[in-house]
Amino acid sequence: MRIFVIRHGQSEWNKEHRICGIHESDLSEEGQRQAEELAGRISAEREKYAISRIFVSPLRRARETAAPIERALGIKAEVIPELHERNFGIFEGTDVRDPEFVSKWNEPFYRMEGGESPLDIAVRIYPFLDKVIAENKSNILIVCHGALMRIIDTYFHSRTLEEYKSFTPANCSILEYEVSQ
User: Fold this and answer.
1) Is 8 among the catalytic positions?
2) Catalytic annotation on 84?
3) Active site residue: 36, 64, 85, 116, which one?
4) Which end of the chain is more exposed for a tag (fewer CB within 10 A), N or C?
């Protein structure tokens, strides 16, 4: 079984360099193009991906990214609450280059005021991954968010703190994990 994980296309807030955790932000024109292009690629390589189920974050930018893939593959995505992006608390909507945010966002145990820490995300997403792996024998696709993808990656790979900090998935990038059952 293989698990493919996709980050949503560029959102309006991504384009504006604003922190977009649990707040809604539509895909930009570029993000819409990225999502359509990705759907075309997955459809063209349908046999390579052999996706049987799609799971998606409830946030609009992820659902907008999943929509063309759903159409291309004829598979309805299942909305999974656990797949929402990290809650960045007081930093939601601020500039991603804000020095206070930059100094704290990669700290695994730091819970931003009103938000979550990376550890909080792991506590929420690891049981979902355990369940998905136990219940599925064929390939699945997860459409979610950058901070979540970083934690999903730690489920499958041991990472040093420096490796974790330097890993930033691009919009509409695909990570692939082989699961032996």
Assistant:
1) yes
2) no
3) 85
4) C
